[in-house]
Amino acid sequence: MSTTPEHVAVTDVPLSPVIAEVVKNRADPYTLYRHYRETDPMNRADPGIWTFTRYHDILTVLRDDRFSVDPRNVTAFDEVRASSGEEDSFIQNAAGRVLLFTDPPDHTRLRTLVNKAFTPRTVERLRAHITELVGGILDDVAGGGEMDVIEDLAYPLPALVICELMGVPTSDRDMFRGWSGEVAPVLDPWTSKEVLDNAVGTLAKFLFYFMDLVQKRRDDPQDDLVSALLAAEEQDDKLTDEQLLALCILVFIAGHETTQNLIGNGLLALLRHPDQLRKLRENPSLTKDAVEELLRYDSPVQLTGRSPTTDIEIADVTIPKGDQIILLLGAGNRDPAVFEDPDRLDITRAKTSVLSFGAGAHFCLGAGLARLEGAIVFNELLARFPGLELAIDEPEYRETLTLRGLKSLPVRL
Length: 413
Hints:
Blueprint (H helix, E strand, L loop, with lengths): L16 H8 L5 H10 L2 E4 L3 E4 L2 H9 L3 E2 L8 H8 L5 H5 L11 H10 L4 H5 L2 H16 L3 E3 H6 L1 H11 L6 H11 L9 H27 L5 H10 L6 H32 L1 H9 L4 H11 L5 E6 L3 E3 L2 E3 L4 E5 H4 L34 H18 L4 E2 L19 E3 L1
Parallel strand pairs: 2-8
Antiparallel strand pairs: 1-2, 3-5, 4-10, 5-8, 6-7, 9-10
């Protein structure tokens, strides 16, 4: 996508030139990542916007609590708000209410409330049910000889699972699909005002939906996450209505977007590397390691942001308080200082923690569920369809940058 007027920053504040180039090279950003990692790994642009591409620099920031996720701690925040012409802007409203943009101790308290639904034991109990869901989906498409992996499997599976966890009727699944796609660009550092306005309008739909669901669970509690959050609220955990609704929206969107992209990106990588596909099919015990390698090779989440709350030195460079740092997780996952021959897919690669789910206090709480769903899908697909192959040469990626995923992935069974 070119940086034409309809695809520019939503404010007049300049953005990182690295991000501008990544936008134009969305189909394959990894060559660009390599260039900056080798020539300018801590790129700085005015007004105080940094782009990090090395694994250890990124990990250092993610693990250091002195780096904030709250956009209000960015020096340029007031400029962003002023240039939007909206004193009560979306960014201003979101900051401090959404888990993604909240620092400890508030983040710790909010995360603890949600984390109970995603403990390793809780996730493992879902294995049999997820396997059953995958089997049913594959039964439905088996007779057709082909399928769109995104449309038929990668979206509906995690959406079904998160609907059940939250107590959202599965009949509403398809309605939420369009909504989630419209909200996802909010996470990008580069979008159009038209897209942003549309996303804000869609967030209002989410709010009204979950306001209704929350009221239903107040009247009639069930064995689901919304009811559990309400129970915590009743125990004087000081969860405001705004925080409750923001948590519901975040968990629902994050609960299927990342998994959808893991399945699509991962299967595409396997189909483009038949030696690795064959190795996994012949030895399903490699699936857990394969999922980690697929997360590394083409991460479903490509970047995240932080801002130092005090001057901090990293790799002998001082990052001033209030500067904005864009951490290119996808670049760090291809750092040759950590991963030997990083542009090669190798499902037997020696394991090093990948950056795809972040690290530190904001490590993705749904990572275990996403990994489990991905592992089950890859196992079931390869076992059921030994002749699985791509039905298109160049699948098209979605226009979002932070969340990297395919629009569709047609395959022949």
